[in-house]
Structure formats: C-alpha cells, structure tokens
Amino acid sequence: LSPTGPKETKTTCPYCGVGCGVIATVSDNGAVTIKGDPEHPANLGRLCSKGSALAATIDLDGRVLFPQIAGQKSGWDEALDLVAQTFSAVIAEHGPDAVAFYVSGQLLTEDYYVANKLMKGFIGSANIDTNSRLCMSSSVAGHRRAFGSDTVPGSYEDIELADLVVLTGSNLAWCHPVIYQRLAATKAARPQMKVVVIDPRRTMTCDIADLHLAIRPDGDIALFMGLLAHLAASNSIDHAYVSAHTAGYEEALQAAAQLALPDIATRTGLSESELVTFYRLFETTRKVVTCYSQGVNQSSSGTDKVNAILNCHLATGRIGRPGMGPFSLTGQPNAMGGREVGGLANMLAAHMAIESVEDRDRVQRFWRSPMIAARPGLKAVDMFRAVADGRIKALWIMATNPVVSMPDADAVEAAIKTCPFVVVSDVLQDTDTTRHAHVLLPSLGWGEKDGTVTNSERRISRQRGFLDRPGEAKADWWQMAEVARRMRYSGFDYHNPSEIFAEHAALSAFENEGRRDFDIGTCRNIDERTYQALRPFQWPASLTEDYKEDSKRFFAKGDFYHPDRKARFVAIKAPAVTDHTCSAYPLTLNTGRVRDHWHTMTRTGKSDRLSAHIAEPFAEIHPSDAAALGIQDAALVELASPHGKVILRALITPRQARGNIFVPMHWNDQFASQARIDALVPPVTDPVSGQPASKNVPVAASGL
Ligand code: SF4
C-alpha cells in the first residue's frame, strides 16, 4: 500500500453534554491526533483536558473482541440466537414485563432508537431505562410539567449574552469545561457580567464567581421559592407574559410566599443578607441565565427544584430571549438524543407521551408494530429491585456499568448475580458489570462507530468512525436488530445508521403539525451521502434551510406544548426541614465528578496524563470536621453508610462546607479497592422523576 497522507475525520467528543466537535487525524503509520473543530458551534475549536486526551484512550488493551457465552468464545450467530431464544422464552412464559433493557447516554441516537422500538413496540413492555435516569430525569420531568414538553429553551450563546449567570448545582469548571471556558472568556471581556455559584462546596467554578452561596444540601427549593416571592414583592413580574402565556401563577406565588426570609435562611444555611444580595441581583438584571445540573437533579426533590427555578424565569418572562432563560446542562454526550427517541421508561418516542392513547396509537401505526407498551416501565432503581426479587428474568445491559454507578451498588451487583439471564454489550472485557454476563457482546467504541448525538443545546452532531473495527465487534444497533429479526419481528432490516436516523426523523414529523417540539422531519429522506456529510444543526432548525435565528430558542412568545399552549407554574410545597444525619451517621456525603475523569474511568483511566491530575479517590473534609474526628490530611479514612463502606484518602480543605464530605464518583474496583462510592448511596428517589438522590447521604467517617 502506498501512503495516502493523514486523513482527517470530523466527529464529536464522547464525554460530557457540551458535545464538542473534534477533528481526529490518522497518519499513515496509524497514529491518531486530536484537536478541537473550529467550525463546531459548541466549542469553536476548544477542547478540555479529557477531549484533548482522547487519542490516549483508544488502544485495544482490555477490549472484548468476540462474543462470549459463559466466558467462552462463541460465534455471533450462536450468541444472538441464544439471546433471542431466551428473551422469547421468558416473554412467552412470564410476559413482556419479565424482561428489561438497561441502556446508556453513551449510546448513539440510532442505537437508542432501535432499543426503544424493540422494547416498547415489539416486546410490548416499557422496561427500558437508562443511566440518564441518574443524570437528568428530574429536568425532563420539570420541563414536561412546566412546558408540556421536554424542551431546553435556550442556546449556549445565551450564557455569553447574559449579564447575570446563576450556576446552581453545577461545577461547570470541571463538569462542562468548555462552557466554563466560554463563560470565563466572556467575563474577562465584560467584567461587569455577574456570576453567582450556588453550591455547598467552594468548587473551582467559584474562581470566577462574584457571589458564592454555600447552600445546605437540598436548600434550593426554599431559595428559589423565596426568589419568586421577592420578585413579586419588588414588582418585577412580567404580568403581560404571565397572563398571556402561563397558568397557575397565583397558586405558585401563594405557596412561595409561605416562607419568610428567616425560614429560608434556616433551610438554606445562608444569611439573610446573602439571600437579599442574590435576590436583588436577579431582580435588577434583565438578562439572566440560570444553569443547573446534577446538584439540582440528583435529589429526592429534584423535580420540584427544577420547577422552582422555571417558575422564576416564567414569572419574569426571561425565557427564550437572547441572554435569558433556564438552562439544564446534561451530563452525558447523548442524554438528549436518548430523550428524543424516548429511551426512558416513562417516555414514548419523539417526545410523545406514553400516557397518551393517541400518541401510543400514532407510534404503533408508524412502527407497524404488533403491540405497544401500555404503561410506563420500571425506572432504573425499581428495575434493579425487580431483578433482585425475580420479576425480571432476562436483562440486557448496554454501554454502562451499573455495578459501579447505581445507588446501593452492592445490592445492584447482588441482583445482577442472581438474574437468570444477563446480556452485556460493552467494549471492555472485564468491568464490574461484564463479570456477571451470561452473554457478553463486543461493541464498537468511540472512533469506530457511526451515528448522531444531541448536546445540551439541542444540537445534533455526527460521531464518525475513523478507526478499523477491532476483532468481531459490532454496532449496538446491529446487535439489537439481529436479535429482533431472530425474535421474528419485522421492521428491523437496517443496513446502516443513516436508515435508522431517517426513520427516527420521519417519526418526529409523523402527524406532528406543530403539536410537539421535537421535529427533525426535514431529515426523513436523508440519504447515505448527506448523512455522512451532515453538519451539526440545532433543532428545530431545518436541515435544508440556512441557519435561522428562530432555531436558537423556544417560548419567547409563549406557544408552549400543553393543549392550551400555556406554560404551567408549579405550586411547590416547601419540603419539611429534615436533617438526614444522626449520631451514627453525622456527616452529609455529596458525590460528583472530577475534572479529568469520566464516569467509571473505563476510558479516561487509560491516560497517564488524565490520571496524573488526581491519582486516587479522595474524601474532601472540612478542617474542623477532620480535627474533631482526628483525621490527618492524606491519611486513610473509612466512610460508612447503612449500605456500604469505602476507604479513601482524606483531603482536608476549607473549600468544603462544615458537616459535608465530597467524594468523586469515578473510581471502581479496577482502579482502587473499596472505593465504589455509590455503594454508600441509598436507593432513595425523587417521587416524580425517579432520579436517585446522590447528593445528600448521611455517612460516618473515621480515620484508619
Ligand atoms: Fe468533551 Fe465535554 Fe471536554 Fe467538550 S467539554 S471536550 S464535550 S469532555
């Protein structure tokens, strides 16, 4: 072969929800270099440490390269036949709700679409849930309650156009680094712009904050209820917008007004003067964006927190206008794409509602499917409970590692161990979850697979393969389509992801006529060549038209997706003041991400550079707590909850609030023994969204 010169491929970073464009260059000798794509609107050439280290994570060490049954190499036909026969037999004997898929925000939209179609439209159960449940399902529920649709109203550029950016439950600097870079650059150029960070910890994001509110865990509802009451009292309500485009304002205000300032101070742990400073800033600044992330979502009251924030933006009409709006920052690269195909147990497809008879009928007719799931399925925590108690007898896990990432992780591992039939599709041979697979299927990894992802601002981008497919690895959509065909279902004759994307686009437009927000119908006849060349676009932009200003935002003129086209305020009841701690478990554990690792480190753990930033798991403790417990800096410390124990190194720092402990979520048994922090997190969930509460866990700490 003669050298052909370096080959460039435009693709998308596989990590966080910012969705940065990446240019991967493969040289003649196979070496890969990575740089940011200057033409991608999300990052304009920027990358963070994780994105720029992607080349160090794509080797084949540890890869699963061929299908395996009971740990022994098998052929694809044998493995797929076994999966199809076992799922069919379980469904025949116990009904469709005896099987389940647990999928992932790492899947591409095309994979997600096939998984959702197979489970909801052909197996006839809605038992498909995703690790996105742990990430942003409270945002989905809050959007749907307020807007009648799961719509993110704004764009990243609003964060740069705002005069006040409120970051609540978001360590933007480490968790969405390129958005942080954009914000920091804007603030440097326009120092009068104000940044408020609401977080129990003084995180790195606070380095650009004008005001840091070290709020008590779960104090957010009281904070934003108080803000709504303050906005009303200071004549800051946009009554024209409220009366034309919303319903329920009076009830929401009445509920919010129940809390007096001293009560809010108690519930938030903030001083009255801090509260008033924040409220005055919000009141007097027209262009406000409130960004929120897992600190809001991962709570037993996460959906109410989201609606408390949305209430304040609706009341002031600060939504869908340049530099104004609430902004949910999703954690994963394709959490949004998963939402678009309905890959959650309580959603249908293309933002249609599983509770709606008309929507179910519409989707079933479109799919020409024999049945359609008639009710919501089991959400993640309940799904693994059902595995534990034997109701789920066949489980297919794709592209995720629940033995590390689920709350009550030891119980989840025990449940998977006892499940009669477990299929795992993954890129790695040996993870805490693949160890328990009866059938292990080799999937394509980043750089090998093809499809689309949607980032936090509704921008659909291509992930493109530029590496040879290793061993016998196959795309996840192909694996599911093959199993569907073997289960004798029609409608799965896909040859490439472009056909799946075209079908997904067609479904989004099917009998839509403006009833639903998600409509990418202009892509429904997309051919392979156009799909390969697809440039990032932000729905509802048209694929074929030039960029339209209208595509950037929703709701400036109302037109919400409830039947009366009005938004709903939610009258939020202040939760009882509860202190979950007790004498046995006197500290509050908060879990989260570090800058240079991703999820359970199966990829970022391969990079020496990324691992050098923080080499081992740690527990961040306030100096007073450490002194009271006799814990020395860098000494080993045991953390315990009623659900499990971990051993970590103490990091004593005044950045941590007194009484709180922070531990990163990433480390697993592969990288550090006894460091799976989610083993300590109880399976407590938000009653509306089903999202687990990973930020407010009572624990005990002791030095070793
Ligand atoms: Fe990747 Fe997120 Fe970093 Fe962008 S900000 S390079 S999407 S990890």
From TrEMBL:
Sorted alphabetically, which keywords does the UniProt record give?
4Fe-4S, Iron, Iron-sulfur, Metal-binding, Molybdenum, Nitrate assimilation, Oxidoreductase
Q: Which GO terms describe its molecular function?
A: 4 iron, 4 sulfur cluster binding; metal ion binding; molybdopterin cofactor binding; oxidoreductase activity
Stretches assigned to the 4Fe-4S Mo/W bis-MGD-type domain: 6-62
Question: Could you provide one GO biological process annotation from this protein's UniProt record?
Answer: nitrate assimilation
**In terms of domain of life, where is this protein from?**
Bacteria
Q: Which cofactor does it need?
A: Mo-bis(molybdopterin guanine dinucleotide); [4Fe-4S] cluster
State which Enzyme Commission number(s) the record gives: 1.7.99.4
Gene Ontology cellular component?
membrane; oxidoreductase complex
The UniProt similarity line reads: Belongs to the prokaryotic molybdopterin-containing oxidoreductase family. NasA/NapA/NarB subfamily.
What's this protein's name? Assimilatory nitrate reductase catalytic subunit
Q: Which organism is it from?
A: Rhizobium wenxiniae
